[in-house]
Specification:
- Four copies of one chain form a homotetramer.
- Chain A is of the alpha/beta class.
- Chain A folds into two domains: 240 residues, Type I PLP-dependent aspartate aminotransferase-like (Major domain) (Aspartate Aminotransferase, domain 2), CATH 3.40.640.10; 80 residues, Aspartate Aminotransferase, domain 1 (Alpha-Beta Complex).
- In chain A, 42% of the residues lie in helices and 15% in strands.
- In chain A, strand 9 and strand 10 form a beta hairpin.
- In chain A, helix 2 packs parallel to helix 11 and helix 3 packs across helix 10.
- Chain A is globular.
- At the A-B interface, helix 3, helix 5 and helix 10 of A face helix 3, helix 5 and helix 10 of B.
Chain lengths: 335, 335, 335, 335
Amino acid sequence: MQFLSDNAAAVHPRVWAAMQAADAPDAPYDGDALSRELDARFSALFGRDCAVLWVATGTAANCLALATLCPPHGGVVCHREAHIEVDEAGAPGFYLHGAKLMLAEGAKGSGGAKLTPEAIRAVIDPIRDDVHQVQPHAISVTQASEYGRAYRPAELAAIGALAAERGLGLHVDGARFGNAVAFLGCTPAEAVGPAQALSFGMVKNGGMSAEAIVFFDPALADVARYRRKRAGHLQSKGRYLAAQVLAMLEGDLWLDNARAANAAAAEIGTACGARLMHPVEANEVFVRLTSDEREALRAHGFGFYDWGADAARFVAAWNTREDDALALARAIAAL
Amino acid sequence: MQFLSDNAAAVHPRVWAAMQAADAPDAPYDGDALSRELDARFSALFGRDCAVLWVATGTAANCLALATLCPPHGGVVCHREAHIEVDEAGAPGFYLHGAKLMLAEGAKGSGGAKLTPEAIRAVIDPIRDDVHQVQPHAISVTQASEYGRAYRPAELAAIGALAAERGLGLHVDGARFGNAVAFLGCTPAEAVGPAQALSFGMVKNGGMSAEAIVFFDPALADVARYRRKRAGHLQSKGRYLAAQVLAMLEGDLWLDNARAANAAAAEIGTACGARLMHPVEANEVFVRLTSDEREALRAHGFGFYDWGADAARFVAAWNTREDDALALARAIAAL
Amino acid sequence: MQFLSDNAAAVHPRVWAAMQAADAPDAPYDGDALSRELDARFSALFGRDCAVLWVATGTAANCLALATLCPPHGGVVCHREAHIEVDEAGAPGFYLHGAKLMLAEGAKGSGGAKLTPEAIRAVIDPIRDDVHQVQPHAISVTQASEYGRAYRPAELAAIGALAAERGLGLHVDGARFGNAVAFLGCTPAEAVGPAQALSFGMVKNGGMSAEAIVFFDPALADVARYRRKRAGHLQSKGRYLAAQVLAMLEGDLWLDNARAANAAAAEIGTACGARLMHPVEANEVFVRLTSDEREALRAHGFGFYDWGADAARFVAAWNTREDDALALARAIAAL
Amino acid sequence: MQFLSDNAAAVHPRVWAAMQAADAPDAPYDGDALSRELDARFSALFGRDCAVLWVATGTAANCLALATLCPPHGGVVCHREAHIEVDEAGAPGFYLHGAKLMLAEGAKGSGGAKLTPEAIRAVIDPIRDDVHQVQPHAISVTQASEYGRAYRPAELAAIGALAAERGLGLHVDGARFGNAVAFLGCTPAEAVGPAQALSFGMVKNGGMSAEAIVFFDPALADVARYRRKRAGHLQSKGRYLAAQVLAMLEGDLWLDNARAANAAAAEIGTACGARLMHPVEANEVFVRLTSDEREALRAHGFGFYDWGADAARFVAAWNTREDDALALARAIAAL
């Protein structure tokens, strides 16, 4: 009964099927028919012109997107606990050539690592136009956030307004974008707000090795295309990645998978009561648990990561069995 | 009847089977059981301690390997027509942070873009210890070369001796390493010579999305491990890549596939006579053909790339049908 | 009566004289007789083998030194308020190719932005050997610190011991190294501790445009020599920079100048009583002053920078007149 | 009697005087009154709006200028023997983050390393819009060229037209811009053509440590300002650099110095007859001389660099004595 991470879960059968259907004939390098479908499919999904590139990992998606929004001498404002800052081994420093992540505090308490216009201003106002200081060129938010909280459309609009006022780009790290949309019950367009680029995550949501970088400004995709090749991320048999992405869109598989994961997380969250560190909105559950309590759960066969000394993180995936979630919920309630 | 490139060919059934067998349970990020098998399997193959990382593309393999051998202020000597110089969109400049590719002329005529100690010395001797000049730190050779020629073990030994004398690292770009070994009929160890790192290509040889970087100095792998993550090439479901690599090694599938491709190329080459630009050793055939002749071949249904104004390149793959190769051979002979 | 910064003060007459004495004949690029004297002069000063490069700015000195100690994928531990983090416009990100500054909290209260082994461990222990995290490769301390505090030799030894235990390099940003030595009354060697590289500041201390990077490991200087050229910091008329550095060493001008600045700062500090934010050890005085009080001082003709909303920073230079310092001291006391 | 290089010559007395006049009071960092004069002075010189930054070396000037015209994934077309390619130790790779120098052949024979539209097209046309190839973003020409040849205004206009047609930036490396203008007898504006940025060299022409980057598009200067700081080239006592630059402009000292150097070179060139490798237009003379002949000249006390195995380069400076030039001319004629 594993709740370690959604990013190691099995591949969805419909993704497998689509990959195998792509196996037929020779296809040109980065110009196969499947890859060429992506722009139209995402444009339909978001109701506006999109230019879309597949790439193998979320780290590459985030960094390639950000590199189109921020020059090497610039900065990207993100939350102090953003994945790009704490979990990508310096990849933004590599892809953005030493550009600076400018770390903002988010809303306090149960804010869940979400940025606010105030938190952003606190970082960028004091150093404005000071040549001794890195100047901001973009903002990156995570939807859903690192603590499983979803930005409401109005929150994104407010951040977007600040970005526009200051001439900053806006990027959404959507490693769990499906989970956010599933929770919000809004359109994908509403969940991404006025961003120029979205890392639309699929690997955590039933895919194998394909994420989509969705550019809402096609000119940025033209830059990213060269940078993708330059980063060794242009796969010669890219049709197998395109097939994965298309399978996820087909019949809203991405949304169904996310709903399933969210439901399992909600089940667990309900059992946690005051132990909960953040409201459960997506598919992650952060729970205060002593070391003894964690040991007890593990003795019952549950796998999960510690979260600091006094808490644990449980992540549900598209294929988490309802019974397993229920069993975990009961075990926590019984502590 | 496609002879465009081996890098877009279909995936071998045994690779598919291995990927699906990896689909079972959750597995830890970059620490799955399959990935852990790689070091032992390659150590057995090469008869010495190897540390091995999978990565999705040959460009990433080459660049991650080279980045362990050359600092940002250094240079890598390679042939003027090396893939890293002419076909990777500046990826070495990205991964090596602006290090310089120091371009050497190879042996003349039918040399096939192979380096020699003399050609290397002609580049590095005149600027030795001059602070206004980038100094060499590594040499990169391509086995088989960009024109389908294989380095003989003695040639690699001579280059390796020069590298050792000057304190330079040695890297082998083995995008078609299998084709070289199949042609040479030697051991893999002999075909790689005294290199510190080998990009062992599999995507062109029946794989889908996994190449192996083989480090003969395990300390380099420890550096590359961090750089792989930093480049967004550490896939969370890496077990599917490890499975591909292991399937290629199993029962020497890599060698069987390469032999098949080489045989098809040889068939074509035999028909070309004086049109041949380079002896056919691996799976590529470079043929002098006028524009009219190329048009005629295309009219017969053959797909291939032009090679400049007066020639064409035909590439055979693991799955090239004997009939297709024969048909092409006859069509060329009949021109 | 300016107390804005020592880094814009006039050039000392003996520095001018030395520059003019260097004007005579043509001299080879980076190989002039004056530049060749540096190694011996600094080796004598520190009582051990030194290899020394001049460079025009402290930012370049810090970054070139750090680049010899930390690869692009690594990290440098420094204090959260270190100059390299807060005041160099991202230069370390540029010179170290995206390496990460790993920010440590220093000793609390009057600690003055000084690092401790505990503060360093709090940053590097939790992420040790985690491939998703940037790993530390070096530590950088500022002597005297950003708040004018000097590291005692025992403090440096303790940090150096941790560095050695973990295989980390140690760099000292000595933009105000002279002020630290003047305060400590120890030898330069004691004030630099077991560092591999020191940015020995001279511009803030009476020089015009030359700092010295002192490498206690000559092999590092050989790397830095190429990187200096690559950064456009190898000046063709470098003899004028070497002349400045030699003039500063001659007769311990660097120490005399620092003593004069420290004395002026001490004079001011004595008048500040409980307003002092940090003990005055070097030539900077941080003073709690309301906005009205600062306005009053400015009305009296004193120039200085605000330090946040409720404080001010006064910096004394080698040429601060005793009368000016006394006048400022009296004006503060009279508030 | 030194003809090694103009870049190590003594500093002109009027430059010294201006530096000392700048020594008076404290001045703000990068905002001093002298630095603020630069834009107006160069705007008057070029008859259009200029934004100007001082920097210590020509390498830094070239690289900071190019970094405003070419992103990390792009390329800069330059001559195969351009200074940025052969003499800056990889600095463009550093400042442009791995962007590629795309090497063009120049006009043949006595072309003197000058680019032509045809030579540029031969490099950029074959790889146009190919994602596997670095795409050009800028062109860099050297005025006067590495062989002392000056681009005529019409030649620059033709290159500029090509640049405009392809959306490429145009940079002029004017390390010896004064020598070119002095030879051409045109206005500075005519000698720079439709460039966006000029590295206006002064160190080789009587300065000590200040070159001017002249941006004809002020928006580029705003980018370069941050990059200059980031590269450690923002000197705190920048008024001493601004003073040098202003002294060079004052009374056209830059033009007088260049004329003097050109005249000395012309004197030498006249004596060389058929030995001349390139017409002498600026202050460099390339002469075919056997090894014995060079030895004979050195035995007469002449200092100069070999130029390959069968030639030598003589460079005249602003302070080359007429007698010395005459003596060299006679010595060559007498060989």
